[in-house]
Amino acid sequence: MVATLGGQPQVVTLALDALLDRGYPIRELIVVHLSTHNPRYHAALAQLAQAFASGTYRDQPLRYRPYAVAQGSTVIGDIHSEAATDTVLNTFNQLLQQLKQQGRVVHLCISGGRRMLGLLGLAAALIYFDYSDRIWHLYSTDTVRAQTHEGAMLHLPPGTAGVQLLAVPVRPWGNLFSALHLPADASLQTVMNLQGAALDATLHTRCQQVYERLTPRRRDVLRALAAGLTPQEVANQLSIELSTVNSHQGAIYQECQAVWDIEPGRRLDYRWLRETFNRFFTR
């Protein structure tokens, strides 16, 4: 489990308790934090270090590892500039890349600390996570927050109302790019460039599959829509009725839904075709 931390250590332990209650086998807790020059962060880390000092948790082995956001040897104190943002993102890049190269399943809780800390953790997770990994947000009521404020309580009795661990419903890119062989020290920009190229190749393949299934006239309609024309403009250019264009669009949508495995009922329109197929026709 990887968790972001500010001055509220109970966010970490309550999320961990919830994961263990659901049967997830957590064997390591990595807490990502800013500089302990902030007294609240220092106190929160000290409280967690004490809670995990024995190397066990709920009678099971569990390694506790604080992980500072640092540029070189300097731990940053806040996220107040683009340079600090880059440092946080690179920290998550290094950590998550290492964990996934080790074949680890990662649970990321983004509720602790600065909001930007969690958002940047989420951004990195979308790049590296696959469908075995999970991203979580800890919800708690005002009453629970008051009871547990700044570690006054690290745990709640079983069945306590007002606290819930919620899965963040995202589709990570890592599952699409699992075949990429990255150097152990690959920078975030290198990873994003490689994944962008792989994504372009995947998109081109899917567009090609749709294109090959279409009749010559439907290909003409798709090419015109991809070029930025509206359905009425396509009708005018091809000298056909608007209803005919709409009929061809419907057939194109059906092929797209099959190739992209789009859930039934999702509405597609000509703008989606333009954004999806424009580069296919212009590259």
From TrEMBL:
Gene Ontology terms describing biological process: regulation of DNA-templated transcription
Pfam families membership: Cas_NE0113 (PF09623), GerE (PF00196)
GO molecular function, one term: DNA binding
Ranges where the HTH luxR-type domain occurs: 211-268
InterPro entries to which the protein is assigned, alphabetical: Sig_transdc_resp-reg_C-effctor (IPR016032), SSO2081-like_dom (IPR019092), Tscrpt_reg_LuxR_C (IPR000792), WH-like_DNA-bd_sf (IPR036388)
Protein name per UniProt: Transcriptional regulator, LuxR family
Naturally occurring in which organism (per UniProt): Oscillochloris trichoides DG-6
Lineage, top ranks: Bacteria, Bacillati, Chloroflexota, Chloroflexia, Chloroflexales
